[in-house]
Amino acid sequence: MKTRLICLVLCSCSLASAQITFSTAGSSWGGGGSSFHGDGTVPNPFRTDLTPDGSTAYGAISTSGSQFIFGFAKEAPSGTASYDLSPTDLSAATPLTLVFTGLSALPRYVAYTGGSLSGYTFNSGTGTLTIQASTINPVASTSDAAGTLLGSAFGLIIETGGDYDFQGAVFRTDGFWGDLAPLNNSYAGDLPLAGINFDGVDGENVTFEAYLTIGFLNSIGIFTPADCVAYLQKIGANNPLAITRQLFGYGGSDPMVGGDYTFGGDSTFDFNGSGADDYLVATYENASWSQANIGITAVPEPATYALFAGLGTLALAIWRRRR
After folding, report:
1. Assuming Cys at both sites, which of 56, 64, 199, 241 could form a disulfide with 291, CB separation 3.0 to 4.6 Å?
2. Residue 181 sits in which domain range?
3. What pLDDT digit, counting tens, does each position of 221-239 carry?
4. How many domains does the chain have?
5. What is the pTM of this model?
């Protein structure tokens, strides 16, 4: 994944088999809503300045199979440091509104490096995806192991095919997007029911947010927030992770966070093109890294726990009898 992202090109065309491209119409940056420019007068027309200068940030695009990959760079990419936006118009915490066109269907999922979502809409009629977030100073990960190359970054992956369909779910991280990849099914144990693969630096804490519609959660056997846990899967380890949640469309008491978990107000996010969605934001983090799958899964059924307990009791009885 890292090599693929480092080879992004500054380009005006839609490179994808899916024909997705970045649209300057409706896209903006900065609190004042500054425009992106794309008039084709320079080799890379997606940029923050009409006349490029030392502060200009450029849109970089590539595709790999069913993935459309988009990020911002300060120069023609030649390595991870090319994606450092700190000297550009897009320093850390700069608000972004990004519009992508040409989607033929609902994305299977979107994964990105940046600040928390402030807006998200998929318009199934026009094949348009609009994302509102911000640039972020990413934590260290394998592509920037010392955490010194990137002072600000933003990049995303739109998955249109592949093996895993999370029905428009969005995964956010504060780790560099060059270290994101689809789930890896080569590890022992069960895959997360919804998640991504990340290549982190051991000892460096990385935060994730999974934005999941209630309809998708129900389809994977999660019917209340208490049914949902975070999960890390890698070579030699399968670990539950602490999780916090923000919810729309549920009512009741969540034993993990306590109290009432129904938020006032209506959702303004449309993840699947059918109107504003009830959704859950699962926030989780991990600092014990090698390359790993990380995401959410369902809490095992009580009957499963009972089975495990019964097997443990049987094993103890057999051991005592042999003694």
Report:
1. 199
2. 2-322
3. 998 888 899 999 999 999 9
4. 1
5. 0.88
